[in-house]
């Protein structure tokens, strides 16, 4: 519905002195479990100390560490784990006792990269051992940052709960000198705060070094711990919990082991004494990471994730992997469905060419019902793969929510200039919903909104008009009666049209889980025709099996299509797509019929003539915004005019596939972004097709005239 991606105020958490709610990164070891069977716990920060010096592990090898001075009542230890991978990406698990296999949060590092992550692992005074296991050869380090304690057994003024704040930058471009100490004074520290959750970002160009983060005035031993390892070729990020020091309890210090580095410092929240603020939260880690489908985050674009948190959750612990950026691109993670100016200035990660980037944060939940977070891209198009690692839950709440979307892990496949079009499977329902007959036209249809031809299509002017009351329809719709009007339905199924002059308006089509290829809306009858307008089309159960709208003799107008593989797949004549928002396509590394990854496009034309694509916002696909692949027959007489287009390997990809140059391809007055994986590749076409294209008034966002890249 319109407003689905609109600005909403994030849900406020407990009040802090001079602070607003919101949240961001916290990577600590507060564990919340069912109140009926588990103790009431709190986090007790400790002066950082190294408990495992650099230890080289072979693939599958493990090392066990015995922690000293474990406090009475301890239920878990919070460790900052750092690993240096060799020639193979590495995952490091931290298990209780001497176990060599366990579930929970794992540190992930890319090839030839150093990675760091704060993890929580169960310990007790009776068994203070933890075991680190690596999937590939790596050098591993571990620092103790604090303990989770049973407050009924271990009363202490230091027992603290986490209270998130709106993410904000507190230090910019701070220079760390060789073996120098830099003190950072934090603004607006709440009364009773014992520690702060910091996010550190080092700029490219640093001398390889080690940065420690400690309380101001901490003992010299803290300088031997690790908060961040800057990199010479690219930016690096880490999140770390740091005790507060200084005379006013509002300072931390950064120690640089050698060389030079330039750091930005962000604050995500504070640990506050439970006696001062008893309404803070505890981090409840998931038994296993729950992946959210990978998406392409367009240049300077945003995407909102809607999650399924447990009751009482105030924040989500989210890790994001980013690949595919052709230039360094900063991504921020913010509460709710929009990002404040302050949060946009922070950094979850920096996607860089040639290496996967990881960033994680515990960020406040916002939006209606407190279920959403938003990723904001400040640079080039980037493919993101989020994972839910856990939840911050209020003391009295229980539950184990999960991410709504289907899991997926992604890695950047090699871009191809002219990919082979995907085969279209015969659509058949495979789940329990049963098809129904033609729906009757509604007696009082909702008025159709007046199109705004001059406004860029987006959240406020596409999809179901705000305030529309929808009626849920369970199962598929098969429309066989000419002139049928479907108005104001929420279709929990798929729609097949086999009649002339059918209209779907002011409706949502969301499908259900399937195990073979289907399109949410299809019109493939030679005598049929369909207009779909002011509607939303998306896969409620995302997978590589589901496309958006498919067919011919159809018009798509002011429609919001997202979270599918292909937004619109054209298989014949007489198609018009206008004033619509095609965005945030799903992408998967592998699929049953595509081992090199899904070839997701905003619009794929496989055959047809008299095709018009006018005044749309088209972005967020991995393969192409518009893919001309005449596998089903010739393509001719298509007009692409007045659109905002971005993303893909190249945004427009024209293939001949043995049919020779297409006739009558017109591109005029389109504005192209620069978020393509191939630099500045708005249009790519073979020489024979490029020679007959009609191009006029097509520019990049900076006004530079678009030219055609030569393909094969």
Helix content: under 10%
Q: Main sheet: which strands, in order across? A: 25-28-31-34-37-40-43-46-49-52
Which spans of ≥5 residues are poorly predicted at pLDDT below 50?
Answer: 3-37, 397-453
Kindly state the number of beta strands.
53
Terminal CA distance reads: 41 Å
Overall geometric form? elongated
The amount of beta strand, in percent, is 35-45%
Question: How would you classify the helix and strand content by structural class?
Answer: mainly beta
Specify the biggest β-sheet: 10 strands, parallel
Total helices: the number is 2
Estimate the mean pLDDT confidence: 82
Tell me the Rg in angstroms.
Answer: 27 Å
Pfam families: Beta_helix (PF13229)
Domain Right handed beta helix: 498-659
Protein name: Right handed beta helix domain-containing protein
Biased composition (Low complexity): 398-429, 445-460
Describe this structure in words.
The chain has 712 residues and is an all-beta fold. The strands form 9 sheets. Strands 25-28-31-34-37-40-43-46-49-52 form a 10-stranded parallel beta sheet, with no helix packed on it. The radius of gyration is 27 Å and the shape is elongated. Residues 498-659 form the Right handed beta helix domain. Residues 398-429, 445-460 have a biased composition (Low complexity). Residues 398-468 are annotated as: Disordered.
How is this fold's topology laid out?
Layout: E1 41-57, E2 62-66, E3 74-85, E4 90-96, E5 106-109, E6 114-122, E7 129-134, E8 138-150, E9 160-176, E10 181-185, E11 193-202, E12 211-215, E13 236-243, E14 251-256, E15 261-273, E16 282-291, E17 295-297, E18 302-306, E19 313-323, E20 329-335, H1 341-344, E21 349-351, E22 357-364, E23 372-377, E24 382-393, E25 471-474, E26 477-479, E27 485-487, E28 489-492, E29 495-497, E30 502-505, E31 508-509, E32 518-523, E33 530-533, E34 536-538, E35 546-551, E36 554-557, E37 560-562, E38 568-571, E39 575-578, E40 581-582, E41 601-607, E42 611-614, E43 617-618, E44 624-628, E45 636-641, E46 644-645, E47 652-654, E48 663-668, E49 671-672, E50 683-686, H2 687-690, E51 694-696, E52 699-700, E53 708-711
Parallel strand pairs: 25-28, 26-29, 27-30, 28-31, 29-32, 30-33, 31-34, 32-35, 33-36, 34-37, 35-38, 36-39, 37-40, 38-41, 39-42, 40-43, 41-44, 42-45, 43-46, 44-47, 45-48, 46-49, 47-50, 48-51, 49-52, 50-53
Antiparallel strand pairs: 1-8, 2-7, 3-6, 3-8, 4-5, 4-7, 9-15, 10-14, 11-13, 11-15, 12-14, 16-24, 17-24, 18-23, 19-22, 19-24, 20-21, 20-23
């Amino acid at each position: 519905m319109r407003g689905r991606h609109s600005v909403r105020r994030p849900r406020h958490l407990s009040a802090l002195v001079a602070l607003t709610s919101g949240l961001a990164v916290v990577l600590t070891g507060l564990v919340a479990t069912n109140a009926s069977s588990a103790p009431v716990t709190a986090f007790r920060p400790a002066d950082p100390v190294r408990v495992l010096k650099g230890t080289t592990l072979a693939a599958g090898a493990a090392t066990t560490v015995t922690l000293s001075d474990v406090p009475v009542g301890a239920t878990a230890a919070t460790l900052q784990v750092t690993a240096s991978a060799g020639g193979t990406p590495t995952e490091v698990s931290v298990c209780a006792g001497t176990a060599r296999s366990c579930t929970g949060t794992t540190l992930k590092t890319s090839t030839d990269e150093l990675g760091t992550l704060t993890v929580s692992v169960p310990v007790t005074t009776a068994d203070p051992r933890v075991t680190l296991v690596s999937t590939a050869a790596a050098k591993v380090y571990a620092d103790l940052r604090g303990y989770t304690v049973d407050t009924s057994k271990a009363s202490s003024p230091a027992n603290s709960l986490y209270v998130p704040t709106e993410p904000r930058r507190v230090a910019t471009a701070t220079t760390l000198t060789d073996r120098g100490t830099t003190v950072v004074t934090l603004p607006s520290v709440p009364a009773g705060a014992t520690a702060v959750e910091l996010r550190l970002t080092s700029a490219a160009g640093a001398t390889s070094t080690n940065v420690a983060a400690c309380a101001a005035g901490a003992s010299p031993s803290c300088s031997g711990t690790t908060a961040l390892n800057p990199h010479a070729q690219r930016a690096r990020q880490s999140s770390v919990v740091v005790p507060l020091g200084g005379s006013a309890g509002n300072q931390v210090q950064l120690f640089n082991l050698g060389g030079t580095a330039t750091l930005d410092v962000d604050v995500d929240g504070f640990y506050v004494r439970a006696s001062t603020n008893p309404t803070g939260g505890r981090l409840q880690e998931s038994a296993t990471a729950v992946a959210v489908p990978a998406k392409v985050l367009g240049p300077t674009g945003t995407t909102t994730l809607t999650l399924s948190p447990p009751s009482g959750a105030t924040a989500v612990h989210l890790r994001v992997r980013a690949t595919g950026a052709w230039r360094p691109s900063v991504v921020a993670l913010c509460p709710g469905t929009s990002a404040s100016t302050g949060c946009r200035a922070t950094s979850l990660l920096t996607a860089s060419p040639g290496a996967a980037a990881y960033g994680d944060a515990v960020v406040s939940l916002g939006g209606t019902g407190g279920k959403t977070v938003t990723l904001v891209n400040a640079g080039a198009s980037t493919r993101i793969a989020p994972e839910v690692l856990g939840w911050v839950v209020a003391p009295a709440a229980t539950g184990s929510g999960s991410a709504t979307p289907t899991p997926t892990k992604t890695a950047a496949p090699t871009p191809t200039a002219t990919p082979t079009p995907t085969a279209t499977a015969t659509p058949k329902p495979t789940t329990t919903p049963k098809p129904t007959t033609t729906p009757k036209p509604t007696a009082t249809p909702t008025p159709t909104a007046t199109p705004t031809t001059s406004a860029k299509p987006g959240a406020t002017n596409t999809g179901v008009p705000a305030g529309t009351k929808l009626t849920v329809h369970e199962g598929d719709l098969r429309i066989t009666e000419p002139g049928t009007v479907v108005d104001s339905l929420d279709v929990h199924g798929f729609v097949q049209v086999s009649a002339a002059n059918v209209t779907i308006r002011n409706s949502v089509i969301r499908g259900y889980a399937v195990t073979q290829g289907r399109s949410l809306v299809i019109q493939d009858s030679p005598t049929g025709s369909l207009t779909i307008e002011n509607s939303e089309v998306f896969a409620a159960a995302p997978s590589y099996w589901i496309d958006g709208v498919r067919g011919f003799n159809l018009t798509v107008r002011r429609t919001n299509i997202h979270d599918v593989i292909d937004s619109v797949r054209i298989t014949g004549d007489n198609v018009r797509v206008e004033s619509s928002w095609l965005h945030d396509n799903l992408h998967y590394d592998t699929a049953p019929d595509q081992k090199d990854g899904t070839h997701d496009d905003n619009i794929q034309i496989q055959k047809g003539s008299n095709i018009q694509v006018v005044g749309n916002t088209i972005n967020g696909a991995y393969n192409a915004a518009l893919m001309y692949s005449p596998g089903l027959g010739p393509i001719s007489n298509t007009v692409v005019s007045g659109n905002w287009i971005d993303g893909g390997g190249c945004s427009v990809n024209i293939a001949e596939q043995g049919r020779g140059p297409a006739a009558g391809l017109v591109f005029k007055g389109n504005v192209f972004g620069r978020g393509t994986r191939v630099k500045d590749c708005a249009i790519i076409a073979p020489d024979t097709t490029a020679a007959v294209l009609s191009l006029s008034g097509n520019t990049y966002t900076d006004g530079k005239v678009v030219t055609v890249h030569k393909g094969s």
